[in-house]
């Protein structure tokens, strides 16, 4: 009995040597920040004075007083996420599926081409987008559209409340083929071919049925991983509006999404308590949406 | 079943029925790399081509003048750009090496060792996959400040080391290691460290390569640590230096566009090279990436 406890102690200790570094860093830079954010969300905190506890006031203000949040940030976030999240996810799956239909060598090359946008840093790509979407007649897109007769006058793409949101969506969709896309590609490639043979014997008639009845159900774990990555990526990507327009808040709040609202209050107005309340709302939204994906794709036991 | 004409997933050779897939894929791939080709082209354009009206998409007389200017011109500060590049290289290399090591050790423990908090740690890590770091930039700053990591090279490195996706991928991969192999090594007298170095590490190389790519992208492309944690210019990174090149009004500073594009290219190319080398290992790892 005594020897057994000593042995289990030793086991615990050795395990701690292995997981310890990760757990320590994980706690300090992920768990504690979330807890601090939750705490600060119940306070007034301007970074200079000690946080003052004010209960639910930040949340009440967010829901009842913050016109910008209700009129622009929430609808924008909704619009942006709906387009970029499911859009990017479906696009990723479709591209992964197409790639799995061709032979290995050409697949490697095309995978590289499709994945390469996700390798780019937002700051670096800003160079490209700002020049392409430049607002004067010498801008590449403007010049192209004028030359080909689609428009008559140059358009101020990134400064215009009408276009900013669409440009944000296109740019984000462009680099949404990331980790989730690679996971789904690997998932499709690893499905046992016999499953398809069996499926055709059971009366599957076309490729669409094949995808629906065999491919997707056989790679649910990868579909789920991809979905979670898509949700997280979507809410993280919002920064692009600020980078394109060069201003936070974005022109007439046209590209203002929830991440920008947090930065606006946190690092521009120094109202950290309020910003934290918005952060908590964001984390909750991401969590709930991921759980929805879980419901959709989890293996039923 | 040679007559089976159904699915052709992962075909071994070309067949004309594949043409329709190629058509879509090539069209989309071109759309995807067009902005990247533009970045290359812009970086190689000499000044007169940057000013050209109407503008041309591709460069005609490529020159390396923009790169030369990038190295010599200290546009915003008196600090040479090579200093930022040096910081980026040190920081990225440290993050990649350390985060692989930390995730591999934890992944091994979570997969093959028995201890009390095992399940709780794994569950917490799964929840952390849904974590949006940008949402807690403020508390993170407060913590980094408390730990004395502001204006300190370690402030670039330590906050980036815990990578939930990295631990997750490695743990799933270690799960594939047969237990017999580990038992056999233990009978031969190997302890946990011996098993980790001699058996697990060689097997999980593909997963480590994948984590290397993710950690590299995270660190190399990161501007947040420079922006928020560093006040000393000399401690900032190349990615941050990029933001000073692109700020508002870039479209009006035509001369700066070439230099900025050259810098963007320096940001992009290392990512590309690493991915080309490790692509097949990444796909290997991702096969085990499923969430259940």
Number of domains of chain A: 1
Order of helices and strands of chain B: HHHHHHHHHHHHHH
Q: Poorly predicted ranges of chain B (pLDDT <50, ≥5 residues)?
A: 1-5
Task: Report the end-to-end length of chain B measured between terminal Cα atoms.
Answer: 33 Å
* CATH superfamily caption of chain A: MetI-like
Oligomer: heterodimer
**Major β-sheet annotation of chain B:** none
CATH topology of the largest domain in chain B: MetI-like fold
**Share of residues in strands of chain A:** under 5%
Give the name of the CATH architecture of the largest domain in chain B. Orthogonal Bundle
Strand residue content of chain B? under 5%
CATH architecture of chain A: Orthogonal Bundle
Reported by name, the CATH topology of chain A is: MetI-like fold
The most extensive interface between chains reads:
A-B, 116 and 113 residues
Overall mean confidence score, pLDDT of chain A:
87
Present the secondary structure layout.
The complex is a heterodimer of chains A (301) and B (292).
Chain A: H1 2-40, E1 43-44, E2 52-53, H2 57-64, H3 67-100, H4 104-119, H5 122-132, H6 140-147, H7 164-174, H8 179-189, H9 193-201, H10 207-218, H11 220-236, H12 240-245, H13 258-268, H14 272-297
Helix pairs in contact in A: 1-14, 3-4, 3-7, 3-8, 3-11, 8-11, 9-10, 11-14, 13-14
Chain B: H1 19-44, H2 47-50, H3 65-72, H4 81-112, H5 118-128, H6 137-146, H7 154-157, H8 164-174, H9 179-187, H10 192-203, H11 205-220, H12 224-229, H13 238-246, H14 254-286
Helix pairs in contact in B: 1-14, 3-14, 4-8, 4-11, 4-13, 5-8, 8-11, 9-10, 11-14, 13-14
Transmembrane segments (chain B): 21-44, 84-110, 122-142, 154-174, 195-220, 259-278
Keywords (chain B): Cell membrane, Membrane, Transmembrane, Transmembrane helix, Transport
GO cellular component, one term (chain B): plasma membrane
